[in-house]
Amino acid sequence: MRDTGSDFRAAHIDLAALGSNFGVIRDLVSPARVMGVVKADAYGHGVRVVAPALVEAGVDWLGVADLSEALELRTRGISTPVLAWLHGPTTDFVPGIDAGIDIGVSSRDQLERVAAAASGSGRAAAVQLKVDSGLSRNGISPAEREEIFERAASLQAAGSIRVRGIFSHLSNTSPSDDARQKSVFEQALAEALAAGLDPELRHLASTQAAIEKPDYRFDVVRIGIGLYGLPAADSMDAAALGLRPVMQLEAEVAAVRRVPAGTGVSYGYIHRTTRETTLALVPLGYADGVPRGASNRGEVSINGRRCPVVGRIAMDQFLVDVGEGEVAVGDRVVIWGDPADGVPSAEQWATAADTIGYEIVTRVGPRVPRVARS
């Protein structure tokens, strides 16, 4: 797993925390089944280590955005049911059908293309129809539902597809908006039944609604960010729920320099030292996912002590002000991890960069090895 050429930086992935998070959520949402969402390289945590750990923990389904992600899971020997729901206009569905991937269908065109691919494959395609309940992204629009449901029922009767599920996605805007979307979804389910469809899976809730709204769980809940120990909304206290951050991003101090007051720091001199102090160089930058927007605002932990980021975060490196603290080349730097350990959290970095925790962990770059630990 570890690239010996970059062993001065790593994202440590705590598989014990991942398994614990899954158990907490599974117990909370039961009897609904859990779909573990591992799109975008498992939210930056490394699908190579995360997906097998979730399978071992007993996850019911895995969810990804596109077919290439789903097929990667199959090439890694994972036979757990997988749903892929975002497709381009020229996506070849045959490999997904052959691999037993459930294909999310959001339009009449996709439905016809999947059915045609199934004819070429020689086996029925498992599809899950996605309806737009108000997010205005992909999904079958209310005006098209009756026509597409009837066509799907016809294709199912002909044996080219099997409609295994119907699903949608909430905006998580407000209780009233969520309730409105739930109502639209339930109407779509009634229309599907009237058209002759009887899907075994109905799912609407991702992490926030799955945890906070029991009547939104239906048959399956899609859990993404919660598996990785981060809150799905500002109102959610992940630690109080028993969820623990899975990723700890670390590096080793690459250089140490004592500088006088008035010293300019990094590009643009957006920071100048106000006193004689010690600067430590951290060999991570925005190419590795450390957000440039957190320049002069983020914090790290060195030798158990919180130290501020000073100056502009560059592509490959940034500086922290250690003050009078002890520091040496090779000392461990924790950029973010579990705040229960006294280190900065991904959420704190998100606040510093005016973004969300999802973005912080997901954008960790490929030259940072993901190192599994139990």
Characterise this structure:
The relative contact order is 0.14. The chain is built from 12 helices and 19 strands. Mean pLDDT is 96; it is low at 1-5. The chain has helices at residues 15-29, 39-43, 47-57, 67-75, 94-98, 108-121, 145-158, 175-194, 207-212, 238-241, 346-352, 357-362; strands spanning 9-14, 33-37, 61-64, 82-84, 102-105, 125-130, 161-167, 201-203, 220-223, 247-252, 255-259, 264-265, 271-272, 277-282, 299-302, 305-310, 318-323, 332-336, 370-373. It has 374 residues and is α/β, with parallel strands linked by helices. A 9-stranded mixed sheet has the order 11-14-17-16-15-18-10-1-19. An 8-stranded parallel sheet has the order 8-7-6-5-4-3-2-9. A two-stranded antiparallel ribbon has the order 12-13.
* Largest sheet descriptor: 9 strands, mixed
- Class inferred from helices and paired strands: alpha/beta
For the CA atoms, what is the radius of gyration?
23 Å
Q: β content, as a range?
A: 15-25%
What's the CATH topology name of the largest domain? Answer: TIM Barrel
Number of individual domains: 2
Mean pLDDT: 96
The CATH fourth-level homologous superfamily of the largest domain? Alanine racemase
Task: Identify low-pLDDT runs.
Answer: 1-5
Principal-axis shape equals elongated
How would you write the strand order of the largest sheet? 11-14-17-16-15-18-10-1-19
Terminal CA distance reads 14 Å
Helical content stands at: 25-40%
- CATH class designation of the largest domain: Alpha Beta
| Number of DSSP-assigned strands | 19
CATH 2nd-level architecture of the largest domain: Alpha-Beta Barrel
How many H/I helices? Answer: 12
